[in-house]
Specification:
17 helices, 11-stranded mixed β-sheet, 9-stranded parallel β-sheet, binds beta-D-galactopyranose, alpha/beta
Length: 691
């Protein structure tokens, strides 16, 4: 059943709408401070994120604090009925700190220490850095703990990267000793260390991987990445200590980069109170814009599922163009509203931007902002931001609502790391995330809600589990998949699955390893194709998979044997013509499918479309959606909130059926047809009743 979660800000049942705000950069222009307050109201903003990069403005010399400007900015927000998401400033430190304590600077994987400057250049192990961060965080918490503007802590900024200094090497070894119960032999076994004579005889010989050596031990590479996640979370927890102690009622978050491979957010999410992320799709005026939209929806769903469905914060997004893409196109009319509603549709309860006001100098002066250099409200971007702020005020009933999915796509950071690292059968274009999204997109296009789960996720509440390229199976995962299918679940996996364990040691006795019996197949070999090659696939007659005509496979083709599974499609070309390309094995009360090759979009559409109809998976609206349009839904158990989002430049008419709906924007009755302009969107509310 859908549930209603408490709002992110206790007792504030409204959307937060706002931006990163840097008043310290405008300290000499008090008239701009005044103007900001006027403009924030006009833009329907009720929250500002402050202090993200303000360390030197708060502590210009060691132990000398200058909170006056932040006091004034916090007071102004409170006096204007607005809130502050207050950041801890650790992501860029003052020059005095770097000069006084060289150990705080990060050492890159080539073992060179970084210079001062930029951001994200600290060592997260350094006791001195931890102490200095702890001190400024404590000062912030002490000073603002009772401030009426404070609604959430934004700890650091986009934690990422790794440090290879001596302190980190020591911490890595200590972490390994714990992981392998002080048993070096166990580590050597897990890392298959006799390979190229890598066996370690002392813990002190172990070093983090870097380009100057060591890249061949996949177990080491994997463990290093696990350690980086561990150490980042450990540093985060250290940052949070004074905040949790002094402001236990204030939720703590840090802005994730859910689209990036560096950190295992399945683990990090447990350490935050609310998940937030920075969403920067690049919707431009191209025919395939909508494919990027499906990726963004996947990432929003992933973000929501990190906390098992609890609403999240969209901490950053751009009000117009970003400045770091090779080409930064302006948002086309309509795109801003649709992009923001997309986040809400997937579970965001806040809409925040980077940035409030364009700064005058340096790297981000051309990055989109609500207020441009012209300084007034008469701009297209300002009007767009104000409009979405106004619309959010009408969406109060959506706050805290949840999403229910019968389908889950399995996406796992560790699995992605190892797929990137393996050598062979292809060393480029492996595209794990993209492959997960290619499967997800078929559900997105049909308005079927989807959850994303990691390997440790709870599969039992789904009817269909799709696990593309499930190369690594950590202990217990195969058993839980088998249990899921045995109890009636439908499982779909693909080529490059069931190959290795959590140390990247290949399963012996035939792939897909512990899933072999469940899938009823044996993968004997994997063929890698050149980018411009394809292999034809032909379905068997009267197949139950909804397939017809000839499909194209590219890049990966497993050569499998059916060992009890039904064959529903076969390769038609290459020396493996006639061998199975798609199989289904009945197992317990469920079934397990194996897609042996990376297939074209038409295959995904036919195969997954057929599964959707055969399993009668719940769709948000019954009618077929035009290409590039999605329908998503949130619910509180009594009402449903339907988001229709058009990511094409063409207008579309969507048939929503006869049930009474209200358009929450116009506050008028909607349906049975809803018209969407190019890049247009609508939010509808209806009483809950099964479709
Ligand atoms: C984010 C970062 C912001 C800002 C933004 C620009 O990654 O957190 O501080 O730099 O990018 O798009």
């Amino acid at each position: 059943m859908p549930t209603r979660y408490p709002p992110i800000v206790p007792r504030y049942f409204h959307f937060l709408h706002g931006a990163d705000y840097n008043p310290e950069q405008w300290i000499d222009t008090p008239e701009i401070w005044d103007e900001d307050m006027r403009l924030m109201k006009l833009a329907n903003c009720n929250v500002m994120t402050m202090g993200v990069f303000s360390w030197v403005s708060l502590e210009p010399a060691e132990g000398v604090f200058t909170f006056g400007w932040l006091d004034a900015a916090m007071d102004r927000l409170a006096n204007n009925n607005a809130f502050a998401v207050l950041a801890t400033p650790s992501s860029s430190r003052p020059a005095w700190l770097s000069a006084g304590y060289p150990e705080v600077a990060r050492v890159k994987s080539d073992r060179r220490r970084m210079m001062h400057g930029g951001r994200h250049f600290h060592c997260y192990t350094s006791p001195i850095f931890r102490e200095k961060v702890g001190a400024i965080n404590r000062k912030l918490a002490e000073r603002y703990k009772d401030h009426p503007a404070l609604v959430a802590w934004h700890v650091c900024n986009e934690y990422g990267g790794e440090c290879h200094c001596d302190l980190c090497q020591q911490a890595f070894r200590a972490w390994l000793r714990e992981r392998y119960h002080d048993d070096l032999d166990a580590l050597n076994k897990a890392w298959w260390a006799p390979f190229w004579s890598h066996t370690y005889t002392e813990w002190s010989q172990i070093e983090s991987p870097g380009e100057l050596g060591h890249v061949v031990l996949h177990g080491l590479n994997l463990d290093w990445k696990r350690f980086v996640t561990h150490q980042t979370i450990d540093f985060f927890k250290r940052e949070c200590k004074p905040l949790r102690e002094l402001t236990p009622q204030v939720p703590v978050t840090t802005n994730f980069m859910t689209n990036c491979p560096g950190i295992d957010y399945w683990k990090f999410a447990d350490a935050v109170d609310v998940v937030s992320w920075d969403s920067y799709p690049n919707y431009h005026d191209r025919d395939d814009t909508w494919k990027g939209a499906a990726l963004q929806s996947f990432l929003h769903d992933l973000t929501r599922c990190l906390k098992r469905g609890k609403p999240f914060m969209q901490m950053e997004s751009t009000p117009s163009a970003a400045n770091w893409n090779p080409i930064n196109k302006l948002k086309r009319p309509g795109v801003h509203q649709t992009e923001m509603l997309q986040a809400v549709a997937h579970g965001a309860d806040t809409i925040q931007y980077f940035q409030w006001r364009k700064n005058r100098g340096n790297a981000e002066k051309f990055h989109g902002a609500v207020v441009d250099h012209c300084g007034h409200e008469n701009t297209r971007v300002f009007r767009d931001a104000a409009a979405i702020g106004g619309l959010l005020q009408k969406l109060d009933p959506v706050i805290g609502t949840s999403r229910e999915a019968e389908v889950a796509v399995l996406f796992d950071w560790e699995n992605g790391w190892i797929i990137d690292d393996i050598k062979g059968p292809r060393n480029e274009n492996k595209k794990y995330l993209e492959t997960c999204v290619a499967h997800y997109r078929e559900f997105w296009s049909r308005g079927v809600p989807v959850d994303i789960v990691g390997e440790e996720g709870d599969f039992s509440k789904y009817r269909l589990l799709i696990a593309p390229m499930l190369y690594m199976l950590r202990p217990g995962v195969a058993d839980r998949i088998i249990y899921f299918v045995n109890n009636g679940g439908v499982f779909v996996t693909t080529y490059l699955s069931g190959i290795a364990d959590e140390s990247d040691l290949c399963f012996l006795g035939g792939w897909p390893g512990p899933l072999r019996k469940l899938l009823g197949i044996w993968t004997e070999e994997i063929d890698a194709l050149y980018d411009d090659e394809s292999v034809s696939i032909v379905p068997v007659k009267r197949n139950a998979a909804g397939l017809s005509g000839i499909y194209k496979a590219r890049l990966f083709c497993d050569l499998i044997h059916a060992e009890g599974a039904r064959v529903l499609a076969k390769y038609r070309s290459e020396f493996y013509a006639g061998r199975p390309a798609l199989t289904c094995n009945a197992y317990g009360k469920g079934e397990a499918w194996y897609i042996a090759s990376r297939n074209d979009e038409r295959f995904h559409a036919d195969f997954l479309g057929n599964l959707i109809s055969r399993l009668k998976l719940r769709r948000v609206i019954a009618a077929n959606l035009p290409g590039g349009v999605t329908a998503q839904m949130r619910s509180d158990g009594t009402r449903e909130f339907i988001f229709l989002l058009n990511f094409t430049r063409k207008p579309h008419e969507i048939e929503i059926g006869a049930r009474a709906c209200t358009n929450m924007q116009t506050e008028k009755k909607a349906g049975p047809i809803v018209k969407l302009s190019g890049y247009g969107s609508a939010v509808l509310m209806r009483e809950l009743k099964a479709v």
